[in-house]
Amino acid sequence: DAKTTQPPSMDCAEGRAANLPCNHSTISGNEYVYWYRQIHSQGPQYIIHGLKNNETNEMASLIITEDRKSSTLILPHATLRDTAVYYCIVRVRNTGKLIFGQGTTLQVKP
Amino acid sequence: EAGVVQSPRYKIIEKKQPVAFWCNPISGHNTLYWYRQNLGQGPELLIRYENEEAVDDSQLPKDRFSAERLKGVDSTLKIQPAELGDSAVYLCASSQTGLAGETQYFGPGTRLLVL
Questions:
Q1: Residues 6 or more apart from B74 whose CB is under 8 A from it?
Q2: For B26-71, how does the pLDDT look when each residue is reduced to its tens digit (9 = 90+)?
Q3: Which residues partner with B111 through β-bridges?
Q4: Tens digit of pLDDT for each residue in B85-104?
Q5: In whole angstroms, what is the distance from residue A15 CA to residue A108 CA?
Q6: Using only C-alpha atoms, what is the Rg of chain B?
Q7: Are B103 and A100 a contacting pair at CB < 8 A?
Q8: Exposure of B110 by Cβ count < 10 A (0-12 exposed, 13-18 middle, 19+ buried)?
Q9: Which residues pair with B12 in a beta bridge?
């Protein structure tokens, strides 16, 4: 299974865009990139996923590089409620296994 | 639409006692997962069900852990006997096989403390 590398922590000013990087240099052609976040004492919350095209939803945007070896999750206008641990996960298509790493702890500051 | 429901939310037991966790997945989701999350770590998969069948239980410590999913809906995860190292958050997730990406949705978890 492909693994991901994320910075352990990041800070962001409230109202600014938060850009969370992820490296997945061993990703295979049929593996999706998923992003989840986990707010303290809650279960992981799905944010967004993609295969090779950039994706956007009401929560965030996902930018995947052309070689698919890295991606960036963008929260366009971070709020204090976005403070959480963000997990970047590579998942093999048509299997259920998500392998979580350590994630990035994002601290949004006023 | 209701999310994944888990109970209890918190459980404190003494070592060597049995404990059980219950999960009700999102309606219509045929795939159910149990994860364990140790303090400061990401969740780790214990077992995955497709309907009633356990299709991946390779990470389940079978000497003391058991799980069942009768009728392919609710699921129960049991530990007997519990050990101090079992203290963790036990998360249940569900997904609907066949949809693009098969996104997993997680419940709030059960926080277990073994004394």
A1: B22, B23, B24, B25
A2: 998 999 999 999 998 999 999 999 899 998 898 999 999 999 998 8
A3: B10, B89
A4: 999 999 999 998 765 557 89
A5: 9
A6: 14
A7: no
A8: buried
A9: B113
Of A45, A98, A103, the CB nearest to B45: A98
H/E element, A72: strand A70-75
- Say if the Cβ atoms of B91 and A43 lie within 8 Å: yes
Interface contact A49-B43, CB threshold 8 A:
no
**Is-cis flag, bond preceding B81, omega within 30?**
yes
Q: How many angstroms from the chain centroid is the CA of residue A13?
A: 18
Structure tokens at A64: 């995947």
Q: Which of A22, A109, A7 is nearest to A62 (CA)?
A: A22
Distances (CA, A) of B6 to A13, A22, B60: 35, 31, 19
Cβ A106 vs Cβ A10: under 8 Å: yes
The backbone torsions φ and ψ at residue B85, rounded to the nearest 5 degrees and listed phi first, read: -70, -5
**Residue A14: what residue type?**
E
Among the partner residues B31, B42, B91, nearest to A102 by beta-carbon distance:
B42
Amino acid at A71: S
Contacting residues of A for B44, CB less than 8 Å apart:
100
CA A101 to chain centre: 11
Q: Which tokens sit at A83?
A: 């403070």
Q: For the purposes of burial, counting CB atoms within 10 Å of the CB of B36, is it exposed (0-12), middle (13-18) or buried (19 or more)?
A: buried
